[in-house]
Amino acid sequence: MIVLLADKPEQASMSTILKPDNEEIFPKWFVKRRNYVAPNSTVFPDITVFSGDIIDLLQKLNSFTSLKYNWDSYGAIPPSLMSIRNARRFLFKNANVSLPFYFVSPGINGEVMIELNKDQKAAEIYFNPDGSEELLLYENNNCILEKEDVSSYTDLIEFFNE
To answer: Phi and psi at residue 92, in whole multiples of 5°?
Structure first.
């Protein structure tokens, strides 16, 4: 089992934690034996199926759980657990799909946004606190599609592969 730790390993648990000799190949922490999973950790049955970009997005997404009210000093509310969970599911589900993931960010109203970007095309997927989703597609900085309650990401895949 491999575990991604959001906290420093020495603070996470009493587990035996190994760090690989060659960090350039895999600069993450490995867990040799783990009886307890820290609350801010994400456990994957096999981490090799996720690219480094996806792992980085997941770690950043996990960091949103520590945001407090007014995290931007303008009254923003922290991302809801529902928003974080749905964004995480999207990343898990599409980790091996050829999509140009760009970044993930918290929104001011408790949502989480994942942006994809390739050349003059971009997509923003909003995971809202009420469980709904919104998809916005942009080409040359112009919004060409706005869709709510996204049940299929076929439009997204076709958009970037045109």
So the answer is: -60, -50
